[in-house]
Amino acid sequence: MMDWTDRHCRSLHRFISRHTWLYTEMVTTGALLHGDVPRHLAFTPEEAPVALQLGGSEPDDLARCAKLGEQWGYDEINLNCGCPSERVQRGAFGACLMNEPKLVADCVKAMRDVTSVPVTVKHRIGVDAVEDYAFVRDFVGTIAEAGCEVFIVHARNAILKGLSPKENREIPPLKYDYAYQLKRDFPQLEIIINGGIKTLDEVQTHLEHVDGVMLGREAYHNPYVLADVDARFYGESGPALTRDEVEAKLIEYCASEIARGTFLGSITRHALGLYRGEAGARGWRRVLSDSRQLAKADLAIFEEARSHLRAPVDA
């Protein structure tokens, strides 16, 4: 979710669900070791719990970055072994690492040696034409021996050549049974499933077989899907915030961020799906995507956007 799940996105999601575990966009070791650390790692206490997802393949570099993540207050350090983009391939990390389980084990051990927070791994079930379940089973087994206890399984292969990142999320078939089998083979591990999951009913079904479910793009494009998570899966007794109440909190957040010099559009771009499925949602999205309006930093833009929600137009 590079360039997507930044702190503004996570703040919106936290308004909707108090208990959902949130993840950063993937941050490369180079960006932290040679770039602007506060820009990449700063977040508000209200966002917690938050996991820092790292991209890299050098154990020493990952250890230094994991230590930074712990110092900045993250609750988990996650190593990305699933991203198939060409940019990641050029850096020899992401999904490429599934072909080098011993290196991943060394990376995990290096990070665990310098941090007290959990170190987890997100991965695919195979690479390119490798379809055999034994491949992902052996990968998980090797990493588990290094002390990793939590695996987030994107239940698709990663095709490193010939498919774009978008196509990699859609074309390789989903094989949820591989994740289910991992849980049966490694009952002591926490197995979290990811990939193509869109509804809380689907989440419920998966939880009959694994320990957790990760929502990615569905939660981004349709953030209000998280509204019933706390009551349904965490035993929260109070009512969920309505969309209007979430919007009110978002406006307050925007006001504080504008005062810090944040461009309003950097925040509203994450909220375009808040009213997804509601009458007038298209007009809401159009107004909050208008760069000329957003440049004025005038929160009255929300009132204009809401005016479309009152009219029975196409959502």
Automatic annotation (TrEMBL):
GO terms for molecular function: flavin adenine dinucleotide binding; FMN binding; tRNA binding; tRNA-dihydrouridine20 synthase activity; tRNA-dihydrouridine20a synthase activity. It holds the Pfam family Dus. The record marks N80, K166, R169, R282, R285 as: Interacts with tRNA. The active site is at C83. Its cofactor is FMN. FMN binds at Q53, K122, H154, N194, G195, G196, G216, R217. Residues 1-297 form the DUS-like FMN-binding domain. It catalyses: 5,6-dihydrouridine(20a) in tRNA + NADP(+) = uridine(20a) in tRNA + NADPH + H(+); 5,6-dihydrouridine(20a) in tRNA + NAD(+) = uridine(20a) in tRNA + NADH + H(+); 5,6-dihydrouridine(20) in tRNA + NADP(+) = uridine(20) in tRNA + NADPH + H(+); 5,6-dihydrouridine(20) in tRNA + NAD(+) = uridine(20) in tRNA + NADH + H(+). Gene3D superfamilies: 1.20.120.1460, Aldolase class I (3.20.20.70). Its EC number is 1.3.1.91. Keywords: Flavoprotein, FMN, NADP, Nucleotide-binding, Oxidoreductase, RNA-binding, tRNA processing, tRNA-binding. Belongs to the dus family. This is tRNA-dihydrouridine(20/20a) synthase. It is an enzyme of class 1 (oxidoreductase). It comes from the Bacteria. InterPro entries: Aldolase_TIM, DUS-like_FMN-bd, DUS_fam, DusA, tRNA_hU_synthase_CS. Catalyzes the synthesis of 5,6-dihydrouridine (D), a modified base found in the D-loop of most tRNAs, via the reduction of the C5-C6 double bond in target uridines. Specifically modifies U20 and U20a in tRNAs. The lineage of its organism: Bacteria, Pseudomonadati, Pseudomonadota, Betaproteobacteria, Burkholderiales.
